[in-house]
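User: Please look over both lines:
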Amino acid sequence: MLEIPEAHVLAGQINQILVGQRIRGVTAAQTPHKFAWFSDGPEYYRDWLVGQTVAGALAVGGMVEVQAGDMVLLFGDGVNLRVHPGGAKRPNKHQLLIDFEDGSSLSATVQMYGGLWCFRRGEFDNPYYQAAQQKPSPLEDEFDRTYFQALLAGTEMGRLSAKALLATEQRIPGL
């Protein structure tokens, strides 16, 4: 399950390894999965992504956002990402495989459920993604004592468990 720490680490690794890589090929939904969610249909991913260059990645709550040219790849909860160096064996089963011009690739698999969305910036209206974009992460300076106290003030403190307070209603996306 992707949560804030994993998303942050994965985004950092993508920035170290894949930035500047040009996409040569895309295979989406090769291994059908009932709970692998794609935006608009995986059949479009190849047309949208081939020729694009990875510009960077960032953690957005518990999701990993990858900028590739004018497209965004967004990986949500339940998606396992792996980078395969050129010449390395790629997995036979995957929900998304992105091949780069240098021979390396990125594979994404879904175990239970997970989002592998691709869209133009500003054209994805997923409420979890929007909440994560609008609220500060606990890893950012904006998530300070004042912000946290404001979160507490907006709840029925005596009626919620600590878990319910921290992990429901997208109060802290990715936690």
